[in-house]
Specification:
single chain; 5-stranded mixed β-sheet; alpha/beta; Udp-n-acetylmuramoylalanyl-d-glutamate--2,6- Diaminopimelate Ligase, Chain: A, domain 1; about 375 residues; Rossmann fold
Length: about 375
């Protein structure tokens, strides 16, 4: 597609728009977009959302739709066809198909993104555009985040992790890609900052960003609940099966994990609110200790149990489990393999995370300088 074509793509030139980029994957783009959407709604009324290029997707009515677009739509009822909020989904053979016919497919991708943006921004006063990874992601099929921002005529903000040295280096590299495409970077947001380091990071990150010509829009504090999985996510990750489910099983938040390789007394001493116990199914002393503890302690002290090595407890113990308020999963792997699999999870906010979404909204309202962001327009 030529430069003259880009001037008319998209046709919507009225709706204000911001491209939310990250220095890498899982730096907090989706968290930022969720919070910004609510904040911008208060100021602008009608707000649109689009994630032009998605890498994690679900199938809806035969179409591959990015998970983050589904999350925003279900959270805010955006009133936009979901396919317009997620025009491109990168499946396993996508890059090969593009490289086999780059001219035709490249023009098709650009048209698809522009048409989706026009639809997502119809009768909207502001549109949030969420990127996918760092500014260069998508370059292999000529749809990098920086180029998409240029095509859509958007200004950009960059979200990075907390710190000074490495985050600033990464912000600088990403800004260079946006600069190359002629996209203005109007600010940076630093995410996952330890509470005790907020003032320190604010001062020195602010100075470093000033040297790059990038305003610091704010710092988001590290919140354990945002990186803590719920039991439903763990169930899917471990590929187990339910031995016992209770109401609201899958939404139970996991804050601590104990591998039951100690005595029952040692286990009881280690319990914290939101504990997940991982233990072989034949460690009946540990299982009994957990059931007894839950029966006499505050609700959800033990959020769940995973019984490993495919060993089912004695039938009478299974009956006691089914009378309890603790959900129990059966898994074939050993305890350490299960724990390692959980430790390696990428925890994404889900539409059912009713405890996370209000927290995210408040974090943005409290910690981001929205006047400075809006003032860039």
């Amino acid at each position: 597609m030529s430069k003259s074509d880009l001037k008319t793509c998209p046709t919507n030139t009225e709706t204000q728009r911001i491209f939310v980029a990250g220095t890498r994957m899982n730096d907090g783009k989706t968290t930022t977009c969720l919070g910004l959407f609510a904040a911008l709604q208060q100021r602008y009324g009608q707000v649109g959302f689009i994630k032009p290029v998605g890498q994690r997707f679900v199938e809806i009515d035969g179409q591959l739709i990015d998970e983050d677009s589904v999350l925003v739509e279900k959270t805010y009822k955006v009133e936009t066809p979901i396919e317009s909020m997620s025009p491109i989904a990168i499946d396993g053979s996508f890059t090969k198909r593009y490289l086999d016919d780059p001219k035709r497919i490249g023009a098709e991708l650009t048209h698809r993104v522009c048409a989706a943006f026009d639809r997502a921004s119809w009768e909207k006063n502001f549109t949030l555009i969420e990127g996918s990874g760092h500014a260069g992601v998508g370059s292999v099929f000529n749809m990098s985040n920086a180029r998409v921002a240029k095509i859509l005529g958007a200004k950009a903000i960059i979200v990075s992790r907390g710190g000074i040295g490495q985050p600033i280096d990464e912000i600088a590299m990403n800004k260079a890609l946006f600069d190359k495409e002629g996209v203005e970077v109007i600010g940076a947001i630093v995410n996952k900052v330890q509470a005790k380091k907020m003032d320190y990071i604010r001062k020195y990150t602010g100075l470093a960003l000033k040297n790059l010509g990038i305003p610091l829009l704010g710092l988001l504090p590290e919140e354990k609940v945002l990186t803590s999985p719920n039991l439903g996510q763990i169930f899917r990750r471990t590929k187990g099966k339910w031995l016992h489910e209770v109401p609201h099983t899958q939404s139970r938040r996991i804050s601590a994990i104990i591998i039951g390789a100690m005595t029952a007394t040692g286990f009881l001493d280690a319990i914290k609110p939101g504990t997940l116990l991982i233990t072989p199914g034949d460690r009946e002393d540990i299982i009994m200790a957990a059931l007894s503890y839950e029966a006499t302690s505050p609700k959800d002290s033990i959020s769940g149990i995973i019984l490993t090595r495919g060993i089912a407890p004695h039938p009478r113990l299974q009956e006691l489990i089914r009378q309890s308020s603790i959900p129990v999963i059966m898994a074939d792997s050993d305890s350490y393999a299960v724990a390692s699999r959980i430790h390696g999870m990428t925890v994404k906010t889900q539409p059912e995370d009713s405890d996370k979404i209000p927290l995210i909204k408040d974090m943005i309202q409290t910690n981001i300088d929205l006047d400075k962001l809006v003032g860039a327009f």
